[in-house]
Write a structure and sequence with these properties.
The complex is a heterotetramer, with two copies of chain A and two copies of chain B. Chain A is about 40% helix and about 15% strand. Chain A has 13 helices and 15 strands. Chain B is of the alpha/beta class. Chain B has two domains: about 260 residues, Type I PLP-dependent aspartate aminotransferase-like (Major domain) (Aspartate Aminotransferase, domain 2, 3-Layer(aba) Sandwich), CATH 3.40.640.10; about 110 residues, Aspartate Aminotransferase, domain 1, CATH 3.90.1150.10. A seven-stranded mixed β-sheet of chain B has the order 1-7-6-5-4-2-3, with helices on both faces. In chain B, strands 10-12-11 form a three-stranded antiparallel β-sheet, with helices on one face. In chain B, helix 5 crosses helix 6 and helix 10 packs across helix 12. The longest helix of chain B has about 35 residues. The mean pLDDT of chain B is about 95. Classes of the chains: A alpha/beta, B alpha/beta. Chains in contact: A-B, A-C, A-D, B-C, B-D, C-D. The structure holds pyridoxal-5'-phosphate (2 copies). One pyridoxal-5'-phosphate binds next to helix 5 of chain B.
Chain lengths: ~450, ~475, ~475, ~450
């Protein structure tokens, strides 16, 4: 008798009798003999609850986690704090164990939570339409690229301009997604001094290629904050759709991308109250103008009227989606990151207007502190002189692999190695979050000093 | 309507405790695009207790498997074991960063490796990638594999993907998202794929047939062996949509049926909670000849060392960042380990038994569309109800039962002649008692219709809102 | 009535997974008193999903601070921060065994040591024991300390404990539980302790006076300095019932008022959740001259080494097993650390402000019993209501507000002339908005009484049961 | 502005105005100047959420816990598994954040859960009345002793007989509790061979002392199962109230104490789904005959009728309690272990009739396995030959302190040292739970062998 199965033998007997069968096996009479399994599945025999716990605890022990080592890793995923209120709410089973709210009367609370996500995230993106939701920052960017293709395909070449300075992983995902529709990708280089986009190249390529859109990232893969207004200006002039991938936390300090003229804003929602979980599950943010609403993939929650004329929440605009439009749908997304989008909404409510600014400031200030102090060390140099938010790229006189290794022995995840920034070698992307206090930052500095000595 | 969290905002309060006594110099830096102090975003200002009460209140106007029966067809809303949730939150996983030095994530690689193997065995495939974020994403990965395979290996141009008319919307959408042309194969009178039509449609343009078996009509495609032969003879591939795997665990396997590629929705068959829409996970598996096409990285093993393997020569590349939904996959892993081979098989047996029992018990009210045994879900005909199926099932809400899947209210698509069909999937975690109760409630509603048709037409009556019309227009 | 879990029992099902493949030889051993295989205890057999639904369902017919306003006087139902719950569940604490070798519990001793110091500072005492399990248990420890002190130090026989008539029931009960005779001091017209009466009652039999300040009437005993002098002059001790500490944090301290012994209810002032009745914690503190009487062990420090100190020469012994409610105390510790000195003081200020605001805003409906400022709770007079206070407040339930404390419906005792008094303690975690809303609802109920007295008399109307009479008789 | 305070400055101003005051400070005008604090509390400055987490994580790291070392410690607290369903339910805030259900209409679900605790626990004790609840196993025993005193004080001497073989901590608590009412305690020795009670002494003392009650424990402090029927027989004949302290898990295998004639059953509920938490909070079980109901301390939940005559749950028999009876109350208990009693009820529902038996059997069998294999080692001997359930006392040829220390270095909590069993030295109480698998038990055996070699 196994716990997750609720029928006892007596139940089974009675039920089979009702159905008019003798054996459980005869329920499967439609399955042809040749493809029936004649052996048991070759899987581990069942674990008791405590044996399972032991197994998982031991697996978990074989990872070193960010409460054990000082974490200076970023690259799109950050060791930010996750308020306890977030977990407390999303662990409530009414949300956790429910399906997509296809029955709105039964799910007003869930729909409202998702609607509030859209509301709050729209404040951050500066654009009114927010989907609920894309899988992660990378697929959100790819979703946006497909949107560009759908929106522009009449007038433009099936080409996409993409900044070289987006996360390498994002570029890989983009390439996979574009491969299907045979959309060509052209890369736009960065300025080797500032780390910002090479605007001349951007202007030229836009003219030459007449692409469906331009995709870029800010802060970019080197941590550098781009001049977004300048980008959108160039794009607007050429009627090229501008697509930004951003870190939502930067909006604690910076103007919203919408304000600065971006057409489609995408990003990774992990910094907003979502645990690292080795990189997933996280949250793909996707947001755009009202005019592009029919092109946006994923769920949209809106207000409708019930039969008494009172407002109610519901899934809306479903004719864009696969379950209605089928092969004509914009994308195939069905299950999404609902619970994680609720996490980010709770996070944003929790920090609120002032806390959001404070949090961004703390990240900025701590990053400046670390950066400035590292630059005092002999032979340690910044690779780029653009402005940064919470991470920056450093160049070392010696092998960065050795540095990472030695820092590791001091319980420090020192940063992410860049294999390939133009011709420059031994570069490290170092990230900071609010969780690192002054003592931790000083420990990083003194440890590095020791290693370099 | 309950006020939104924004409606609750007040000045100069907040829920947070965000400060660091050493770093309090909050002078705004000089950056292009800086937001001035007085430029507000419009985020709410609320205190912690208000947040907790607001959201607790919202959860109380929602409904999950923990609250009651949820026979939403095609969605496999089974019980989500609590131990899996708990163990997926161990700090060693929850707090590890994806870009840590590889050797500091040995537990991760080992878990992934074992999970790949278990899934391969469960589905009868040879290799698995855990990267896809959901079922549809697994499909997409599969389609890219198909595309790349014809490009790289077969050097052919094949632009057509065949799907059944009863297929889930994601199937055709995945195909066309990847640039394929999508062709539809009809269902025959018996609810099966029309093989004659299939034969006619097979040509050298056909890259693959996507199929879910049992189908979304709850029936097993018993001609699957022949179908596989036809497909392979045509040089095409066979893709398995694993959303209905709960019907066949330990009984038969997609790999044995002849499928070349398959995904599994962990949030259905493997009991990971669906979270009101996600995150789920949709690992994709392939036969050996396609292993090198899988998205990278996959977990691999060298002697006793586990590691992420990026060296798949034909890989389609990445399909998402990092390694997949680790938190979700851990729950699925726990589910496999607590069930074991026999437990998984029993799961399937009981799921199918429950569905057939429900079908029989409801047959006077809602006769089955196809008059035969069903698999893990039953497709019932709502035509003889005096009111529309849409309003009939709304009344279930008042009895604390989640309505089943209907056209437009659920994730499944039916052709026009099935416009009033009802797809019910009780899953194995409903007791005989809850099924009997549900049948009784159906009967009762039928009586209520007789007594007061309008009352039922306007159901539900117990919720904060009244009935919401089908595909209601948005208001602003 | 919802079926009980026993009603749900069915044969041969179960929720558990209890086995070990190696130890399956389940032959019953031969022991005296062995229970034969066929002798059933009558425990239920239910599956996991049934358990989860059963209890989820039960929680949905309960009400906590997370669900809404809970102004239960004397109970300090403030918001319970979630981070405290979470951090109290860290494996290093949750999974450690009390009898491990001492050196493997360094974190435990350090935490206990710091907590003792923080509490001593907060209450103005010199030493603390964390052992008592609740406020009443802290009282009991205190009473034993008093007893032992007169025995060991003073070699006197003192058999009387004085308590105020408004004291919480635990005060007299603690005294008599320890074998003391309990004498009651009246409250005067102003709601304060009758000092003249006190003077008269002081003799060499009086071991101690137990007092809570502010009192259970919500008033500060402003004569406390004089009271302390009288008590000490009489050679007696002064005991502080710390249940109302939320009114004075950072403003004044029992130690400074002259109290010799004091407990604190962490589940009130220090925000640890009350769990539907407990567990709470009731650490007890003393002035230096009583330190050696504390229950053992207390955490101590030697250089950098923390350890449990069992060497208190006059100790009353143990008052419970092990070291106290560690899981609960951790939450209180987190609360102190997240607030800091200023935050705790603000907590008190806002608690008192909220109570006074409520008192003022309600004064037309429910005039204050004592016409002056109150502390963290206000005592209101229900006499001018047209219906009994008992039924009036039941109507609050329909509006999602927990009724305040009344005689017989709450933990406080009032003398006869206060038979219709209502004790309201909003706490600092209610917003002005929720208070205003509450006032509005009181007004509305008053209107409802006018319109339909019977309707209010029979409230509540929104719950699974109807009104339950005062001290209803049990049925079988 | 601090998170847990909900008033902003504007609110405060408005509210003060309504009250007719100028400053917050004037709210405290009743507090005399001399006792006002003129300085800030000397407490740590506030921690941010992440700093708090760091602090607690670091404290927790300074403990070694039972998932890290193999735990063979018992002595009344056991490293049993806690089903995840238990935590999932009791973390739901409707239960967690509620007070004692003084308003039954609003708390039927909570009251039912507590009522079910009483129902299920009564099955285990074999006696119909179960209180809800005592603080822990030790105070439950002391509560029972006070009950004996109250029930019997007319006819008996104010004396209590107590078995020497109860947990040392329990005896200490008992002494403290009895000191108040000046109840004398006389100890009953154990048989040095069997470890069971010395029945002759018990018979004699009962005759001589005419005590209010006899308190004993089974399995006793040496892990030995007592002959309960024999004890109750002796007590009954002398009209002495028998009070047992038991481990509820043993009832998976054994007859209920009620059946065997015990008058008051007490025990520690920790083995039933409650985490160790370094020994607290746990659960005091207290159960008795219907005839003693008016003497039982603590809450009782029962069924009453609402005004429509329908059954409803409520606190009952409140006239026993301190808030009604005040100085005449049986005890002063008010806050209790409500949530922990619900944990044990969920635990019992979870394991159910068959699982409860299986669990007890597993504990028994694993204990036998370890014991039998240890006895094969040279010079390792059992101290007593009585029957045991899940722990047993071993005698070593060498210093038990050294053994404990050496085992610790192998990541084993080897057991609990007994300082004082008659004249016998170097004894160790070794406990086993279902969580230890064969490999763990074998590791213990081989480690000990190595140390003894
Ligand atoms: C048959 C079928 N295929 C595919 C999917 C899509 O899976 P997902 O929602 O995980 O993307 C579903 C989900 O409803 C389904 O039922
Ligand atoms: C004034 C007062 N004293 C003592 C107590 C008893 O405290 P506890 O319930 O923690 O035992 C209470 C609890 O209600 C109280 O309000």
């Amino acid at each position: 008798m196994y716990g997750y199965n609720t029928l006892n033998n007596n139940d089974k007997k009675l039920m089979l009798k009702e159905i008019g069968l003798e054996t459980i096996n005869s329920l499967f009479q439609d399955i042809p003999e040749p493809i029936r399994m004649i052996r048991q599945l070759n899987l581990p025999q069942p674990y008791s609850e405590w044996a399972l716990e032991k197994k998982l605890v031991n697996l978990a022990k074989n990872n070193i986690h960010t409460d054990e080592y000082f974490c200076f890793l970023g690259g799109g995923y950050y060791n930010h704090f996750v308020p306890a209120v977030v977990d407390a709410i999303v662990n409530r089973s009414e949300f956790l164990t429910s399906y997509t709210p296809y029955q709105p009367e039964m799910s007003q609370g869930l729909l409202q939570a998702l609607y509030e996500y859209q509301l709050l995230m729209a404040k951050i993106t500066g654009l009114p339409i927010v989907s609920s939701s894309s899988y992660d920052g990378a697929t959100a960017l790819a979703d946006a690229a497909l949107m560009c293709d759908s929106i522009q395909k009449e007038n433009k070449n099936q080409k996409l301009l993409v900044a070289k300075s987006i996360w390498p992983q994002y570029l890989e995902v983009l390439k996979t997604y574009m491969s299907g529709r045979k959309i060509e990708i052209e890369m736009i280089d960065y300025d080797i001094k500032t780390g910002m986009l090479n605007f001349d190249e951007l202007r030229n390529q836009i003219q030459q290629e007449n692409p469906v859109g331009f995709l870029f990232q800010s802060p970019n893969a080197f941590g550098i904050i781009e001049d977004i207004a300048k980008v959108t200006n160039i794009c607007n002039n050429a009627k090229v759709i501008s697509v930004l991938s951003f870190n939502p936390l930067t909006i604690g300090l910076l103007k919203t991308p919408g304000e600065l003229g971006v057409d489609i804003v995408t990003g990774e929602g992990q910094p907003l109250g979502i645990h690292l979980n080795a990189g997933g599950s996280s949250l793909g943010i996707l947001s755009t103008h009202s005019k592009y609403r029919q092109y946006i993939p994923g769920r949209l929650i809106g207000k409708v009227k019930d039969i008494k004329g009172n407002p109610a929440y519901s899934l809306v605009f479903e004719n864009r989606e696969q379950h209605v439009a089928r092969e004509k749908a914009n994308t195939n997304i069905c299950s999404n990151q609902a619970l994680n989008s609720i996490k980010s909404a709770i996070f944003l409510s929790y920090v609120g207007e002032t806390g959001f600014r404070k949090l961004a400031m703390l990240n900025y200030e701590k990053t400046q502190y670390l950066m400035n102090n590292l630059l005092k060390l002999k032979d340690v140099e910044l690779v780029f002189n653009g402005m940064v938010f919470n991470e920056f790229v450093i160049k070392f006189p010696i092998s960065v692999k050795i540095i990472i290794e030695k820092m590791l022995s001091k319980k420090i995840f020192a940063g992410i190695e860049y294999k390939n920034i133009s011709e420059i070698e031994n570069t490290l992307l170092i990230s900071v979050t609010e969780k690192l206090d002054k003592g931790d930052l000083d420990y990083y500095i003194s440890s590095l000093k020791e290693i370099l000595a | 309507m309950t006020p939104t969290i924004l409606d609750r905002s007040r000045n100069n309060v907040s829920g947070h405790q965000i400060f660091d006594s050493y770093f309090s110099n909050s002078q705004l830096p000089i950056i292009k695009g800086i937001r001035d102090k007085d430029m507000k975003l419009g985020l709410p200002e609320v205190t912690e207790v208000e947040i907790i009460r607001h959201y607790t209140n919202l959860t109380n106007d929602a409904f999950g498997v923990d609250n009651g029966t949820y026979p939403l067809g095609s969605c496999t809303m089974k019980y989500n074991p609590k131990r899996n949730d708990k163990l997926s939150q161990l700090a060693g996983f929850q707090k590890s960063h994806p870009l840590q030095p590889k050797k500091t994530l040995n537990g991760l690689w080992q878990f992934m490796y074992e999970m790949q193997i278990y899934l391969a065995e469960l589905l009868g495939m040879d290799a698995f990638s855990l990267q896809p974020a959901a079922g549809a994403h697994g499909e997409l990965a599969g389609i890219y594999i198909i595309q790349k395979y014809f490009e790289a290996e077969r050097k052919e141009q094949r632009n057509t993907i065949l799907v059944a008319d009863s297929a889930h919307g994601t199937n055709p959408a995945s195909a066309s998202m990847a640039g394929f042309e999508c062709k539809i194969i009809q269902t025959d009178k018996q609810g099966l794929m029309d093989i004659e039509m299939l034969k006619k449609m097979l040509d050298t343009n056909v890259a693959a047939l996507m199929l879910t078996n049992p189908s979304t009509l709850g029936l097993f495609e018993k001609n699957i062996i022949e179908i596989a032969k036809l497909i392979h003879k045509n040089g095409s591939l066979l893709y398995y949509d694993g959303a209905n795997l709960n019907a066949i665990m330990g009984i038969t396997r997609p790999g044995d049926m002849g499928f070349d590629i398959a995904h599994i929705n962990t949030h259905k068959t493997l009991s990971t909670p669906h979270g009101g829409g996600g995150p789920g996970a949709g690992p994709v598996g392939v036969k050996q000849f396609l292993r090198s096409y899988l998205p990278i990285p996959i977990a691999d093993k060298n002697g006793e060392i586990y590691f992420p393997n990026y060296k798949l020569p034909n890989t389609i590349g990445r399909i998402k960042a990092n390694y997949g939904h680790i938190d979700v996959l851990l729950k699925a892993y726990c589910y496999i380990l607590t069930n074991g081979p026999q437990g998984l098989k029993e799961t399937t047996e009981n799921a199918v038994l429950n569905a057939n029992y429900l079908q029989i018990k409801l047959k006077e009210i809602l006769p089955p569309v196809f008059n035969k045994l069903c698999m893990h879900e039953c497709l019932l005909n709502g035509d003889i109800l005096k009111v529309s199926a849409y309003t009939f099932v709304k009344r279930l809400i008042d009895y604390g039962i989640h309505p089943p899947t209907l056209v437009g209210a659920g994730c499944v698509y039916f052709s026009d002649d099935l416009g009033s069909a009802i797809l019910m999937e009780p899953t194995e975690t409903e007791t005989k008692e809850t099924l009997d109760e549900m049948v009784m409630i159906f009967r009762q509603i039928l009586d209520e219709v007789k007594e007061n048709e309008d009352f039922i037409k306007n159901a539900p009556h117990s919720k904060n809102v009244s009935q919401i019309p089908f595909m209601a227009q948005e208001i602003i």
